[in-house]
Design brief:
By secondary structure, the chain is an alpha/beta fold. It folds into 3 domains: 118 residues, Rossmann fold; 178 residues, Rossmann fold; 209 residues, 2-Layer Sandwich (60s Ribosomal Protein L30, Chain: A), CATH 3.30.1330. Helix content is 35%, strand content 23%. It is built from 18 helices and 22 strands. Strands 8-7-6-9-10-11-12 form a 7-stranded parallel sheet, with helices on both faces. A 6-stranded mixed sheet has the order 14-13-15-16-17-18, covered by helices on one side. Strands 2-1-3-4-5 form a 5-stranded parallel sheet. Strand 3, helix 3 and strand 4 form a beta-alpha-beta unit. Helix 5 packs across helix 7 and helix 14 runs parallel beside helix 15. The mean pLDDT is 91. The structure holds nicotinamide-adenine-dinucleotide (NAD) and D-malate. The site of nicotinamide-adenine-dinucleotide (NAD) has 38 residues, from helix 5 and helix 7.
Amino acid sequence: MKIMIAEPLATEGVEALKEYATGAGLELVIDQVYGQKPGELLQNIVEYDALIVRSGTKVTAEVIEAGKELKVIGRAGTGVDNIDLEAATQHGVLVVNAPTANCRAAAEHAIALMFALARQVPRADASMRQGKWNRKQFIGVQIDGKVLGLVGLGRVGSEVTRRARGLGMTVLAYDPYLSAERARGLGVTLASLDQVLQQADFVSLHTPLTEGTRGLIGPHEFDQMKPSAYLINCARGPVIDETALLQALEEGKIAGAGLDVFAQEPPSNSALLNNEQVVLTPHLGASTEEAQVEVALEIARDVFDGLTAKPVRHAINAPMISAEVLEALVPFMDLSERLGNLAIQIAGQHIGRVHVVYGGRLAEHDLTPLKAAIIKGLLEPISEERVNQVNANLVAQRRGLVLVEEKRPHVGVEQFRNLITLRIGEGDNIREVSGTVRWGQPILVSINEYWINLELNGYMLICTNEDRPGMIGQVGTMLGRENVNVSFMQVGRDKPLGHAVMAIGLDQAPPEALLNDIGNVKDIHSVQLVKI
Ligand code: NAD
Ligand code: MLT
């Protein structure tokens, strides 16, 4: 077996790999090849069974394709945004990461930046090195008694919370996907993003980089912040619109920023580098001796287990089901994941409890793989943490997500042999989706109790409206005017001229303004774009 380590990894990790191999009686070659150019990595990867990287190596589809022997990619750290996961999955390459080992280091770094900003440490240090003794210029602000606003309350956000509360801060957080119970347990009040930005003296970002968080902090968000507030980013650079940040600093909309991560690394934005209100560090969040040793040990264990086909702790993309169960359940796993994916998008709120009903012959099986697929569908759009058969329950547990499962051997609706229903929310806020498998395809058959019949795939516009003549035509014309092609349209209603739901399949995402215009059409109550 050959492992390439493409970026510095603590010796403890390398030694652990050797020990595991000796213990298993396997021959192992470990090559530490640092600083390769993309072309060199492409050439060199050919003969390796595993590749271990940090955040500085782009593991592209080409690299994965070139790695003919590649079985495992180990990310020695949390974020997997430098690895083409889709390509890895398509090529059957297991991706593992080390998500728990460096979250305390990252949290400490966020706190370090907060102090550096509050007490102007870097500027005072630079001033003294110029031979000055200027005590009046560097009056700081106190941390005790201030409000810390977190955006993202996962592993790192939770660790920041513990420290901030110990410093006498009040913690507010915006995390639309976290249960109120979990937040309460941490002593944090959940609030909207605007409320967090308006009330916080320090705002610290701790979301993954996803399509939903790219540019999350832009001009509108800076307008909400206090002129005395500081922004800290130890998550991922592109979460902040850097041009808007510079403008906000220049116009005095915020007092300063502490940045560990950048849209481009190393950063190319010289205006940011020259701005005195910004404290900068070169992606050091995880760079403590302790975290690096823990990360190296954590990744060594999973890379070796992955190579020797043992269950891994932090698999990002691995389905692990026995062949027989697989055969019966594969189409329903796909359906379950898509239903979860749709449910979280239409719920758009904290998910604490999800009620799942498995109806029909399906209910005779052990449905653990379906539960994992539902959790994967529910969490994948909102977390960097990929969920699979190995870690689904653990992830759900950690996030306070409870799946209440019910098996009903009889569906109760004649035309379906099998039916899976997901119900999210409480009271007036319940969202419900049901689906089945027909000719091997996942089909959505009901949404919020309206019966429909459509493929769960691609972009879908979901409108609730009054059932009146001309509604379908109006929406169709508006989409056509903007050149948005409709692939299918389905309507469900409670009774003639009652309430209805329109589900419209689209070949591409319509512009935001068009969604607003459709939402303003008389008798349309809600419009939502989802992507399955
Ligand atoms: P996590 O998955 O445990 O937590 C992320 C949280 O963000 C989740 O609770 C999720 O619900 C929430 N979230 C998702 N979308 C959101 C949105 N649109 N708005 C608000 N909240 C949203 O991840 P983590 O381990 O806590 O890591 C957080 C970030 O820190 C990641 O980007 C990770 O790559 C980064 N990180 C950086 C360093 C560093 O060296 N600077 C070190 C470790 C982690
Ligand atoms: C991470 O995602 O773990 C961090 O960005 C740290 C790193 O890889 O250096």
